[in-house]
Amino acid sequence: MFMADSSKPAAAEAVNAEQAVCGAIREPLAFWLWQRIAGRPDAQRVAHIPNLEPIRFTTRDGVTLGGYKLAARAPKGYVLVAQGNAMLADQLLDDLRLFRDLGFDVYLYDYRGYGLSGGKGRLAAIVADYAEIAAHLNTLGYARRLLYGISIGGVMLLNAAGRDHNFDAAVIDSSPSRISGFGCPESYDLVGHLPRDSSRIMIISGARDTVVSPAQMAQLIDVAASRGAAILRHDAFAHPYQDSSHALHRHRLNEVARFLMQE
After folding, report:
1. Residues near 156 by Cβ (< 8 Å), separated by ≥ 6?
2. What b/e sequence results for 51-66 when a residue is b if at least 16 CB atoms lie within 10 Å of its CB, and e otherwise?
3. How far apart are CA 179 and CA 189, in angstroms?
4. Given this model, what pLDDT does residue 10 score?
5. In 3D, which of 88, 87, 90, 89 has the Cα closest to residue 43?
6. Angle subtended by helix axes 152-161 and 123-137, to nearest 10
7. Element (H, E) at 134
């Protein structure tokens, strides 16, 4: 794709795209640990799911991201999902069939450096990836553009798509108000990416969440509520995918779907 004399600039661009912004040692170490916890992709987890398409997306810096599309028969729109930082796409797909069954194409990629995706996991690079993915999906003629961010996935999506607010609805599920306390630039803090009119956003917080506590979400919730966002505080919710029962987990997903699907 590139001329021979362009190989050095392209390589330099790739290095810059994956530069750590949360500490030269801390950020690579954190992503290395999260990738190990996430484990390896397992095709058997998704072998039983009908209308599932493996997909690839090549970023501007030449990294290929791997993931899946749950394809609806006559899609009303898309749902772009960004998962937690120790999760793989194939671990979530069975649950996300709910959105497909409601008539939406569902897109879910492994973060760069994880599972099916190449490159190195870095905050700035992953945010840039989702900005590119969302921009691409918005060229495909979908009537509804929906986002679901789980834990750190909420930070990724609103940093990416929140820049131009080019979406119709978004659910941010158990994401921290700020990540600058971990050495990241304040410009990545989620609370700074809420639009002035946040009525298209729902924030979910669980009282039993020990990963991202209600205290860590308090500022985000306060600012979002003051700008018209829907707030769901649930006494029994833990962190996503750590709820105490399948029924509670399903209730959570139903609440996400209810908000996203409303016109």
Report:
1. 82, 126, 127, 130, 149
2. ebeebebebebebebb
3. 6
4. 34
5. 90
6. 60
7. helix 123-137
pLDDT attached to residue 11 = 35
What pLDDT sits at residue 7? 31
Contact 151, 173 (CB under 8 A): yes
Q: What is the pTM of this model?
A: 0.93
Element (H, E) at 157: helix 152-161
C-beta separation of 77 from 143 below 8 A: yes
The structure tokens 């609370």 sit at 191
257 Cα distance to chain centroid: 16
| pLDDT tens-digit map of 25-50 | 999 999 999 999 999 999 999 999 99
Taking only the tens place, the pLDDT of each residue in 73-114 is: 999 999 999 999 999 999 999 999 999 999 999 999 999 999
Nearest to 151 by CA among 180, 137, 130, 171: 171
Residue in this structure with the two tokens 């700074």, named with its chain if needed: 192
For the packed helices 93-101 and 246-261, what is the interaxial angle rounded to 10 degrees?
40
Looking at the chain, the number of H-run helices and the number of E-run strands are: 7, 8
d(CA 81, CA 72): 15
Rg (CA), the chain: 18
DSSP E strand stretches across 162-240: 169-173, 201-206, 230-234
In this prediction, residue 47 carries a pLDDT of 94
Q: Pairing mode, if any, of strands 230-234 and 201-206?
A: parallel
